[in-house]
Records
---
Amino acid sequence: MKLNIGSGFVKGAKEMDGWTCIDFAYEPNQTEWQGDYTYIKHDLTTIPWPVGEDSADCIFASHIFEHFTYDQVLPVIRECHRVLKVGHPIRIICPDPRIFVNNWQVKNQAFIIGCYGQDNYDRWGYKEHQGMAFTDMFNHDHYDHNLCPSIDFLMITMIKVGFDKVVEMNSVNTMSHEYFGKNDDTNMVSIFGNRPIMSYYLEGVK
């Protein structure tokens, strides 16, 4: 089983063919969730997940950890470790606070537009509210985000629960090409390297 946690709807994502997706928002009667995909409706903070121990070949978690609270991260990481097979990988993508701070220091408005889009840039008045513009990704003001999940925090948590290897990657490299490698020759960004303007990429092996 290849497991995508907090997947959202993956309709049209060819790289998700054959994956099992877990998302609390799953609604089978809504068009965007329909298609030849396997979904499990479940709140990831409700432990245990309806997934067997040592049953997942890999786990992919893209832009989900910022939705948890601080106290929820350790149980979720521990559950990832439980369901993974020994010697198998997890890939995590998160918004990177380092990138946001670096762009705040030079007041890079193009970065903010690239992150949120022009509509949200105008709607929330980011041009006039610089502090909000560069921190909204990590707050609950306009998005259902609760945490500023630094890579060090997640790495330490992964080490704590017993991951054997924990390594920062980038948007185009991976320790596990068979699971997280780009599988076509198009110029489209791989789902496993999504949102490179704002993200860090972290992999671990159980």
---
Amino acid sequence: MIFMKVLVAFDLEGTLINEEFLVELARAVDKEKEVYAITHQGIEGKIDFLDSLTRRIEILKGMDQSLIEKLSEKYTIAPGVKEIFTSLQGNGFETAIITGGFKIMAEKVCRELNVTHLLCNEFIFKDGKLAGLKPHVRGNKGILIKELIKKVGADYTLALSDGITDLDMLDIADCGMLIKDHAFKGFEMVLNGLSSGLPEKGTRL
């Protein structure tokens, strides 16, 4: 049994769920190529996250809110994720999703997985159409996880993401894990070894 307050923070898209929501929205209105091109520029570091996000939303402006709400229900939880959250909650750990994705979908995932904290972006709708965004998570996950650690009074923090753009969050956490293709085996090993304690602070997996 671990007698300390532990916070486990996750990225969302590509980590806990299979879909990239903006790509799914773009596909629905035949603008996938344009959105993907901007996304790729961000991955390559040619533009920053907020610029990438703003440009993609600009392409999607005018989409029906009803269509976006319908598509926000079409996500799939990655294999093993539900079992991981059951284990985390069984150990009394607090959980968080910190994502550049959007509240309209992220809240649904949080309810399904019983996640404690959510930090995300929001769409702005006007007259039933997508009109813009409120950018809360904009390449600042390191700052946000610091604030959350302080807010919850965590003694130890783990963070998991599939993207190198989240390295600032992983570096702040006591144990940061960069995962690929939903390969949670390393994290599952950590969970299985909890009886002997958490990984040493500063661990990177």
---
Amino acid sequence: MNATTITCDLLVIGGSTAGCFAANTARERGLDVLVVDKSTAGQAGAGIMASGFWAVFNEDWGMDYDATLSWINANSSYLNNRDWTECFLKDSWGTYLDLKRWGVKFPVPEEEMAGFFRNSIVGDDQAGHHEDDPHTHYGIIPLSHRCVSPALRRYADSIGVRFQDRTMVTDLVKHEGRVCGAVGFSLDAGEPVRFFAGAVILAAGL
């Protein structure tokens, strides 16, 4: 059976929140991006259920960088990767701005978020403020239910990200020790598919 061959600059395996986020970022920088998902990108996986809040660090809200970093390290039993933790803190507000620009709707207006954080989360003892509460160390932006990954998929479609839905990736392709693609099969047709890419991102979760 002959396999269908698809090429791209960037192959993203997994089309939930992380995969669509990576795809949108790369596409905005001019890359030809293909997202492969075993279900329907933007509509399946754990990411579709995202709700509650988006975690951010914002010094304008009265947060202290060193104190926040120290709290996260201590409450991770110092097993966290400090470099990745710092990336989270430094990039978190920018990720919120990207989500907003890409069409994710947030229930609290931006101009009210700092007040919402202080009054609803930090507050006083009656509001549940205590040192073990992570929300007193980094900020939260409330999320509506099931609002993130569908919006990222819609934006991705609008800027030309390509999608290969209902395709199961079974293995990565390597050349001279470097990952250069993947192989899999269509869940509907059962036919094999080969992907060749300049770079590959794994965003398929567990």
